[in-house]
Specification:
120 residues, globular
């Protein structure tokens, strides 16, 4: 596979408790990686820690990727992850129809920088 930070396909993460989430944004972090859940921007600033996650540790693998008991996979859209693929599709549709309601790249980078991402 590839470096997780260069993959352009949608990603999902399997949490230690077995739940799976679609990844909206992903960043390198000096201590590991930072990821945002879908619709993260709808949370109040004080609640963002519920939907923006810093995973500390060494990122391993070339797909799937593992860090801190979380496993990242390319989201399978051909029936293997139907529920997550639907969530991702709805997210993409929402973004297409509401381009002014989603933070622009510079704002997203500033938010990631606030969590310690130096490359953001």
């Amino acid at each position: 596979m590839a470096d997780i930070f260069t993959v352009t396909a949608p990603l999902k993460v399997r949490l230690p408790d077995g739940r799976q989430l679609v990844v909206a944004e992903l960043f390198r972090h000096p201590e590991g990686l930072l990821y945002f859940e879908l619709f993260w921007h709808e949370c109040a600033v004080d609640d963002r820690d519920r939907v923006i996650h810093l995973l500390k540790g060494e990122l391993k693998g070339t797909g799937p990727w593992k860090i801190d008991d979380h496993i990242f996979y390319v989201l399978g859209c051909r029936g293997t992850d139907m529920e997550l693929a639907t969530e991702h599709s709805e997210w993409q549709t929402w973004r297409m129809h509401h381009p002014d309601d989603y933070p622009d790249v510079s704002m997203i980078m500033r938010i990631a920088s606030g969590y310690g991402c130096s490359e953001a």
